[in-house]
Amino acid sequence: MGMIKKPPSIVSFHITDKPCYIFFLHIHEILKPIFMKKILLFPLIFILLSSCFSIKNSKNEDPKWISLFNGKDLNDWTVKISKHEVNENYANTFRVENGMMTVSYDGYDSFDQQYGHIFYKKPFSAYFLRVEYRFVGDQAKGGEGWAFRNSGAMLHSQDPYTMLKDQDFPISIEAQLLGGDGKNDRSTGNLCTPGTNVEMDGKLFTPHCINSNSKTYHGDQWVRAEFLVLGDSIIHHIIEGDTVLTYQKPQIGGGNVSPVDPAVKQDGMALKSGYISLQSESHPIEFRKVDLIDLESYMNDKDKLEKVLLKIKEM
Q: Is residue 1 part of a domain?
């Protein structure tokens, strides 16, 4: 009887992925009798293993939410309030209460145009941002009439450390969040442009604000606002699943921000990336969720980007 050649040991393969390794062990046990009969089926094993890793890689391409607000503290955020130095959280304006990021004014004698913003620690370029918010309580004494139930998510914002001490708003694209007064129509998910311009319908749009076509949200109800931002190409505002506003080519320009460092405000410069910040404009507001899906890695592959956006839409 001739000597039977021992089949290659699977342990000679360096497989670090546990599910695929277990899968490989099962295949080895199933095919061991066939190997003993000198029938080599490496192409089959290769195909099976390729399928295993392909499935895993496919799962890795699923969009992953990043929680910008952890529900516990503001350690990942930087505060900049007008008339105060960066990181001076005047009167504890921004705080965490009951697992929510809360903007409050109980420590103010008068609001006195002390507009504030709280910035996430790192900038983003292409992303899908989700914010869940609600307005509560009464407006702070001294707040402007237009600031009643008014806040915003600032997109592609300048670095808070480049803002002047008395600067009112960061150079940014403001996704304006508004609440109803109980009677009149008042859309949310609007656009305002402190120190910026955008294009709409192929033309430069220079007015400071434009309303979306959203419904009005009265009272203290929670509202889900989402924003699809693809670098300096296109931005969509989405309220409760409905796209309510779209524009293109965000860029530095225009007014409605003061004072400002001219070295930072370079008119005509495309806004390809920037920080995300949330506002304090004199009306108390709560944020229970601030999440983001980073789309930067998909921007050079249109097909992958479209697939990921479809998955996000189905979430």
A: no
Q: What DSSP character marks residue 92? A: G
Phi/psi for 66 (5° steps) reads -110, 120
Among 27, 45, 60, the domain boundary falls at 60
Q: For 270, which DSSP code?
A: B
Cα distance between residue 168 and residue 297, in whole Å: 34
Residue 207 identity? P
Q: Which two tokens stand for residue 250?
A: 């965000």
CA distances in angstroms from 285 to 58, 94, 169, 177, 252, listed in the order given: 39, 10, 18, 10, 28
pTM above 0.85, yes or no: no
Sign of CA dihedral 250, 254, 258, 263: positive
Kind and range of the H or E run holding 37: none
Provide mean pLDDT across the span 40-56: 51
Higher per-residue confidence, 52 vs 187: 187
Q: Return the number of other C-beta atoms located less than 10 Å from residue 15's C-beta.
A: 17
- Residue ranges making up the domain that contains 172: 66-314
Number of domains in the chain: 2
| Cα–Cα distance measured from residue 100 to residue 286, given in angstroms and rounded to the nearest whole number | 6
Which H/E stretch holds residue 153?
strand 150-157
Burial class (CB in 10 A: 0-12, 13-18, 19+), 85: exposed
| 30 pLDDT higher than 90 | no
Comparing 52-56, 145-149, 308-312, which segment has the lowest mean pLDDT? 52-56
**101 and 157 inside one domain:** yes
- What average pLDDT does range 259-277 have in this prediction? 98
